[in-house]
# Entry
Amino acid sequence: MASFTPLQRLVISVAVLASFVTFLDGTVVTVALPAISRELGGGITTQQWAVDAYLITLSALILLAGSVSDAYGRVLVMRIGLIAFGIASVAVAVAPTPLVLIVARAAQGAAGALLVPSSLALITAVMRGEVQSRAIGVWTAFTTAAQLVGPLLGGLFVDLLSWRFVFLINVLPIGVTLVLLGRLRLPEHERTTQVDWLSGALCAIGLGGVVYALIEQPHQGWGSPVILITAIGGAALLIFFLLRQRRPHPLMPLSLFRVRNFAWGNLSTLFVYAALSLNGFVIGVYLQQGAGLKATEAGLASLPITILMILLSSRVGRLAGKLGPRLFMAAGPLVMAAGALLLLLVSEHFDYWWQVLPAMIVLGIGLSLTVAPLTSAILGSIEESRSGIASAVNNAVSRVAGLLVVAMLSTIVGGTLNLAGFHSATWVTAALFTIGGIVSWIGIRRPVPEAVPEPAEG
# Structure
């Protein structure tokens, strides 16, 4: 980071570490799922809820957190989020039953929602243009690496200690981030004065209802009154949430979507991150339950992606700043689709080196081409004063994508994550990546910062 000023280097460090916590915890759990279900019981349903309880609150409250960040200050919100995340992590680590674990995971997600939009908003507050693109490239390299190295760290803890220690990995980065945060002095930005708490509740409860129905319907069926009530009720609350956003001072300003790159970039995000979440889940679980690998070996499987992301993301971010993001955002997902299809080589006679490694290398190249330009195109199209909520919307879209695809896992794999189910998930993953690339090519243009019109009073 030699070309950044001291303030910019400090901001990037804080942003990376704060986001590292939430991204790491979102993926570190993947390789721990078989061990969790063995000790606490519940099978694939417990595994789904261990992931989705975190994603429900993270997805639903990240919008509210972005608004709160703009209203009360990014540093304060980030500090509160870090402390709350640490407490919730300890609660997960000592959970005696699946219910306690699920509730604690939901609390983790709520705390994590305070961190990601605040961290990216710090970058957009002090950097614009090509410098911002390079900074987001650095942020992307390390935070995406956190997502990808999570399974490796989780596997080591599961095999050598216990799955419970997986959730204590965050203690060190939380402590370091709190220290750095105390040294950060930023110029004050104009703050909003209203936060729409009711919209936050509508979004959270609505998403919870829909996801509950998707996870439980394979066991109870769509004819179950409980499934119907939660599905229809959740969908209705989400509709009310969207209608409420037409009011003054909305939680999710619909005017943001009048900015071309923001709208199309978020649509691409929906498909790309759904594919990434599905791919990460099935690889982490199948390599243990289907291929018979240890948790550490399953975590090591994705290490090539981590290495490629660290090596390439900042360079791609710099190139995208000069050439524009469209080509990268279109080509990257198509390369990842090819990588996903290579996983069809996995057979009953499992061989990592010939059946999985080639796919990991191709996926790593495609992911490196995609993530930094995608983030930069979306946030670079929105003015700085709205960067908190813009970052929150984009992160909410990516989390909702993962939330829904994991909730639909039983339907995608046919009820069991055996070899046939793994191959079914692979086809769906490749299709989602392909759609994401096509959407980017159609919609993305070289970004020009645009002022987002405020909703009219009345």
Notes: The chain has one domain: 6-182+197-443. The CA atoms of residues 24 and 147 lie 5 Å apart. Residues 449-453 have pLDDT under 50 and may be disordered.
